[in-house]
Amino acid sequence: MKTTLLHIKNMVCPRCIDAVRSLLEQAGYRPTDVQLGQAQLDQSTPADPASLAPMLREAGFDVIMGRADQLTEQIKTALVEYLEHLRTARMPLTTSAFLTDRFAATYSHLSKVFSRTANLTIEKYLIRLKIERVKEMLSYNDMTLSEIAEHMRYSSGQHLSNQFRQVTGRSVSEFRRDLMPRRLSLDQLA
Fold it and tell me: What Gene Ontology molecular-function terms does this entry list (predicted)?
């Protein structure tokens, strides 16, 4: 059975998967598999990605047409998974080893494509991801900064604090004092 594979930008969570599946079904398509960053349609509903773009864009998603853009979105998805790997692995892989294993490509190639299409290095994007996760953890107010630093694999609370200020322009304590701290959605990171 021939299928159409759509690469979709800004899918970052299980609710995004449900939303894209629902949008496609409402538009008369039959998705056979929807995952972060992609949707597969069966042959009975051939799709023109350009015609689906306005519908998806209205919901905050976008169809990715070029190979470099597709790879960049796949790397972003893999980096979200890498954060979980960091948290759970006893001896976590380095970012480059994780991505190289995932994509069977050199880190140099992945880095060049990502930097060119995202206008940001993989390392800076990962730092932004980590800081958004730290913001989430800080907003729950149930862990100390040292515990969060350990959880996120920072070398110390001070290292986390310095990086937090560098990325957000605010200290951790300023962020904690704010009653409604501003967090970014993952699609706003790059």
Answer: DNA-binding transcription factor activity; metal ion binding; sequence-specific DNA binding
